[in-house]
Amino acid sequence: MEKNKQQLTRTMTSRHITMMALGGAIGAGLFKGSSAAIDMAGPSVLIAYLIGGIILLFVMQGLAEMAVRNKEARTFRDLVQSVLGKYPAYFLDWIYWKMWVLNIAAESVVAAIFIQYWLPDYPIWILALSVSVLVTAINLLSVKIFAETEYWLALIKITVIIVFIIAGLILLLVTFGNHNAVGFANLTEHGGFFPNGSTGLIAAMLVVIYSYGGTEIIGITLAETKNPEKVVPKAVRSTLVRIVTFYLLPFFIIVSLIPWNEVNGVPESPFVMVFKMVGIPGADHIMNAVVLLAIISSMNSGLYGSSRVLYTQAVDGRVPKIFAYLSKRKVPVYAILMCTLAMYLGVILSLYAGSKTFDFLMGSLGYTVLFIWLIIAIAHLKSRKKQAEHTSAYEVKWFPYTTWVAILALSAILIGIIFTTSIIVTGITLAIYLFITLTYVLKGRYQDN
């Protein structure tokens, strides 16, 4: 293959990767997973998302600093390998790839569930297949077209979340027509703020971590971002503020307006339920459409992230070279097609498990996001020693305290999750991790570029 075929082009700007990070994180975890998190923790889910947001802040600051220090980095592996060594970098690369391919499989099913709101007679697998074909087509276009598509999809759902927040606050605080202001009684009634105790709060952390997962996709865009040393820190700062805002405020409105024990088991998203309460004709259909676009947006980001991991693995000779082939539009076609197989796997699973497919996959995904964050935080902790002589345009304040807080909090959450999560989900996840480790051992020593 010609050399120029091996190079991705730097066509993405700050607004693109900021929206992509939002697109990856504001998806099924928020719109569908919210029901599961509220069912586990009740109103105390707000504390769970606040804790998760603080941890995310500390992890992403470390990622931004490492990206600025290592201007030649293309993905996570390049950031981690120079600090922690070959195995952690290999493990991170593959669990990140596994996270996204499973995520797009899960979200193809969730998208189908929301389409069923309008087409109840169509089976989930047919609807999931249709969405999968659409997302594949978008990713096979040029990177610039993909980035623009993702930008506008993310912008639409952010706009609607803002409208949701405004409408929710009006329902909570204002009496009008036949509507009486709901107030905040639902936060403490129905078993109190902690109806399921600390166990429920810990169990919800798995959904929380899964929901926030995807923000770290910024670390995959390095090879296709203009001036990453300037763009990445800026994107991290703006993304974090928006994500915490777009999670905490909507959840506050949901658990205030709707009794927490009435959220789960309802076919539609809590967001649709709230828009029904507004009383605007067709508001539930509008919200359902936006939720659907949000999930397609998240799938879009997921397919991008997984295909770029596979592409860089191929460029470095760790997987067959065919996955390094770039089309005339500088798109890794075969890497994308390989990763789309995960969506079709989700279609096949939905033939047997139906809407339960998402719940089954979400648990394993939560574990994976947690390990990704842990590895990034540990790498950041050690990166200062490795690169102490180099000055950086961006440095984390209060280092190493923030990084240690992230590591200790994630470790505590991991222990808690092990004891509160289905042993089947834990066992399957462990088996996947052991398989990745086994492939590393069988390949022998990892060759440097």
UniProtKB/TrEMBL annotation:
Family annotation (InterPro entries): AA-permease/SLC12A_dom
Main location: membrane
Record protein name field: Amino acid permease
UniProt source species: Lysinibacillus boronitolerans JCM 21713 = 10a = NBRC 103108
Keyword Oxidoreductase attached: no
Annotated Amino acid permease/ SLC12A domain residues: 16-428
Localization (cell): Cell membrane
Keywords for the protein's UniProt record, in alphabetical order: Amino-acid transport, Membrane, Transmembrane, Transmembrane helix, Transport
Entry's transmembrane regions: 46-68, 100-119, 125-147, 154-177, 197-219, 240-260, 286-311, 331-354, 360-378, 398-417, 423-442
One Pfam family this sequence matches: AA_permease
Topology of the protein relative to the lipid bilayer: Multi-pass membrane protein
Source species taxonomy: Bacteria, Bacillati, Bacillota, Bacilli, Bacillales
